[in-house]
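name: query_chain
kind: protein
chains: 1
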Amino acid sequence: MNRLLVDGYNVAHKMGIKISAPTLTLVREHVERLLLSYAMVRKSRITLIYDGKGKIGSRETNGSLEIEFTPENQTADSRIKELIDESLSKTRLMVVSSDLNICHYARISGVKSISSEAFLKEAIEVVQPNTLQQKHLRKKSHHSQEKPNTPSQKEMDEWLKLFGK
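structure:
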């Protein structure tokens, strides 16, 4: 699998965070950070599709994460179906959604699918150990750069008594 097609709001809802007008940007940023980290670890490309509802369809890219907002007359599901139909290598695609209709469409088109819940569990397992490992390496690196403790005057005197000058 090299490319994931992700139903953005479907995944966001499964994260258990209440989505409302004041939290919408924060929720999107949280989803996007998780997906970007996942893409870097798994070395894959991700297309994250949000329902645009009232916005002009737009697209932006952040490394291996492409973010699309569908135009007003199109849903994320219909855009995912378009991307499946346009793909020349369906075996390299995977759809992330808990919408049974889109998952069924993916399967009959020869594309793998995974529920948003299962994907989130996997993504967190993939991303968190990497984050913990980086923290450990930074901590280890920080300790190795510190100077060793210097002996106290009392310790110096004891060493001089034992070994002389």
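note: The two ends are 69 Å apart (CA to CA).
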